[in-house]
Amino acid sequence: VDAALLAGVLMRTGEQPNASDVVNYAPFTLLPSAVPRALFEQAYAVQQDFNLLVDAVSQNKEFLEQTLASTIKVDDFTARLFRIYMQVLEEGLAQTVVLGINRSDYMFDCGLDGTAALRQIEINTIAASFGGLTSRTADVHRLVLKVLGKSEEASQLLPNNPAKGLALGIAKAWELYGSQRAVVMFLVEEVQRNIFDQRCVENELWNRNIRVVRKRFQDVFEQGSLDASRRLYMDGQEVAVVYYREGYMPQIYNEQNWEARLLLERSRAVKCPDIATQLAGTKKVQQELSRPGTLEKLLPGHPEAIARIRATFAGLYSLDEGEEGDRIAATAIADPDHFVLKPQREGGGNNLYGEELREVLEKIKDSPERTSYILMDKIKPQPALNYLLRAHSPLQASKCISELGIFGVYVRQGQELVLNQAPGHLLRTKAIEHADGGVAAGVAVLDTPYLV
Ligand code: ADP
Ligand code: MG
User: Is residue 132 within 8 Å of 163, Cβ to Cβ?
Assistant: First the structure.
């Protein structure tokens, strides 16, 4: 724990989430977890393809419209985002520079013969976090291995600094915006426990002499304005880039915050992500991407990228009204342990499994509400023993499974992709008792891959 504090693996406390007088360590594993080298390399090798794909989806109005048509009839949150999307398209985009920061998450599915396969869980196109803290955890694990007399193994832990690469993307977008005076605005939460993760990215920007301000939606509502050419000002200070670390959960939006979101989207500031890219990250889009022929339409002339992308897909199923949806709903009700039921939500704790999945699906199977969900094959990784360190919790060995995330960053100016990178990774590990949830949700903890 001292090593973690020393390395900066930090989080504010639940009691005082908005003050740094007292802080604690962010939860982490005692030991690094084994990750198959081939799958780790496969995940890195496909990341630039995923960047291309997300960017292509975000520019394809027809695809987004068709894909989300049934969802927005029943899911108010997606509908509201979609309305802003249509509104800004009608008005015409004020900015041709696009900055994407995402994280594609995977688990290692264990087949009947014991071999593991890389399976994408989801791609996060807004507020993908832990690119900062993860850069600090390898130092802790290196020390632990040394203390255990395993210095050879310690030397094999990979360097990893996603925050630096994310900041590089933000800096590029800031530069293309073209105003020395303008600032980068981090759009942050009301409750800021994970501030140190964000500070890692922020510091990289200050190191490049780029000014950063931290504001909430409420601040934007109170201080934000656009000039005649839709330049965004916060109390007179011009904003070049808006980096959202908030905005993906319906609960945080009151009417004022929706108004603030619309103002940001209409503005000339580079949005990371813009509203189209946020929509490209919905579970419904993920499910439609897995339909035969869809990738070919979205990425014409990229057969190799398509093959790499498709190789990571798990089984995904539409619950839209009709025969196809009826059939898969019946299959999942009969065999719920092979599926995950997912609504259009982010942030952990929203998916349904097992008996709960069966109950909910039974209830909604003949109603339009069904279409606000998708079904996915449940991934079953091989568990391994580890110790999860969490403040004020007893230390005990747990059976754990891990989720690997690869960060992606890209910048497009008009039709030209000027930056496309995979700047680092994140490994999160949780005890197998928990079906769902990430680090922020208090379920998973930070880990470091040990390649085998
Ligand atoms: P969120 O947007 O809430 O993060 P995810 O799709 O990432 O939604 O699901 C949350 C968590 O649920 C994941 O981190 C993973 O632990 C678990 N999970 C999601 N999909 C699957 C799946 N197909 N098989 C097994 N576990 C899954
Ligand atoms: Mg997730």
Answer: yes
